[in-house]
Amino acid sequence: MKRTWLFVLIALLTAGMLFAGGAKEEPEEVKEAEAAVPSVVTTLSGPVSIEFWHAMSSKLGETVVVLTDKFNSTVGKEMGITVTPVFQGNYNEMKQKTTAAIKAGTAPAIAQAYPDWVAEYMQAEVIVPLNDYIFHPEVGIKDFEDIFPGYLEENRQYTTEGIYYSLPFNKSTEVLFYNKTFFEQNGYSVPKTWNELVALAKKIYETTGKPGFGYDSLDNYM
């Protein structure tokens, strides 16, 4: 299983990586971790076809198709690599299908995932460390440093050695919704700080007996 994931990730990253930018020089903090990363294969013996599982629907799903088509007709065509995007439903369905595929030994070449999913998949030893691929002088990712630093940190948080086990693909924007009618009826003001939010949530709970603030994915938020 581990060998399968390694091969297809080599194929994808050899082509320059489909969905991310790249770096010219390896940062000091990751050099000591190189020994833990497998050597990079820079040539392919024949055509390679890989699947990319994702949860992007509607216009975002259409964009994924446009990106993969562009890759397949340019770098992929030159290198003999074909990427097929496979929509796997919403995030919950995506997680269920990926977990089931890992257990069955049929995991895809590359899959969209939250960081906490990646940490879980690492326990099954199906995730390949990426540093050697990212910073390889011949087939590494160019302009890697252009990616927002916070997104990069999120993808190397899994160990203390500074090794990347995932790469940024998409990012959601957090939005706070509130019930305007309820606030007006009770004379509440929209909180502007976390302290105000905590105080208001307690007041709402005292009034209604229900939580005054909720979050859809506390693990990822924290």
Describe the structure.
- With 222 residues, the chain is mainly alpha-helical.
- The chain is 44% helix and 7% strand.
- The chain is built from 11 helices and 3 strands.
- It has a 3-stranded parallel beta sheet with strand order 2-1-3.
Please give a quick description of this structure.
It is built from 11 helices and 3 strands, in the order ααβααβαβαααααα. It has 222 residues and is mainly alpha-helical. The chain has a 3-stranded parallel beta sheet.
What key attributes describe this structure?
7% strand; 222 residues; elongated; mainly alpha; single chain
Largest sheet: 3 strands, parallel
Give the helix proportion (percent range). 40-55%
- Say how many strands there are: 3
Structural class, from secondary structure content?
A: mainly alpha
Helical segment count: 11
- Content of β-strand: 5-15%
Strand order of the largest sheet: 2-1-3
User: Whole-number average pLDDT?
Assistant: 83
Distance between the termini: 31 Å
Order of helices and strands: HHEHHEHEHHHHHH
Using only C-alpha atoms, the radius of gyration works out to 21 Å
Low-confidence parts lasting 5 or more residues at pLDDT below 50?
1-26, 29-37
Overall body shape: elongated
Secondary structure elements and pairings:
Layout: H1 2-14, H2 28-31, E1 48-54, H3 58-73, H4 75-79, E2 81-87, H5 91-104, E3 110-111, H6 115-123, H7 131-134, H8 149-154, H9 180-186, H10 194-208, H11 218-221
Parallel strand pairs: 1-2, 1-3
